[in-house]
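#lab-general

N.A. 3:47 PM
ok so I finally got the sequence cleaned up, no stray characters, all 213 residues accounted for. can someone with queue access submit it? mine expired

B.Y. 3:52 PM
send it over

N.A. 3:53 PM
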Amino acid sequence: MFEIVKAGGILMVPILLCSVVALAIIGERLWSLQRGRVTPGDLLARVWHRHRVRELDRKEIDSLRDSSPLGRVLAAGLVNRDHPREVMKDAIEETGRQVAMELERYLNTLGTIASITPLLGLLGTVIGMIKVFSAITAEGVGNPTVLAGGISEALITTATGLSVAIPALIFYRYFQGRADELVMVMEEEALKLVEVIHGEREQDDDFRAGGVA
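B.Y. 4:20 PM
back already:
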């Protein structure tokens, strides 16, 4: 393995660093963007139940805020539940924007890695071919060993750059879609809470799935 890295030249160092960073981001986002961690399925039903029996005091709301991203959004609305619908909705939207940014954390870095690693590989290809032509100029085409070194460097950096970029791009697109999906779910749940608290939605139908009627 070390011989391959050495044969690839100096540009293998930033490519391999990019691969380490990409792997760390992918692992962290796979953990953080689990649906159960972001939008627990029964959270809205439990929140409504506590609100209905008047158990939602400041301590409960603070606990809800710390429980999950969805809990944070719902807590922002509950703090303003005694205000008009527009105030409650504005508070939810402001918090929702912050949560959405947190769900997309590190994705710009992952997208940048997916973009630059093929370019680093291409740069390695160019450098390798320059060495090939320099060797041809100096020694002609009669020494295949000299030519093979430059060609090998060109191929190794290109292959390594693409090997890092392809999975990075796949996961970048996947995490973007995942974050957008979770944001939509949070918007729907928060809107249900607003409409039920302000008497615009029948609670029996909308919370039956969560065990609250």
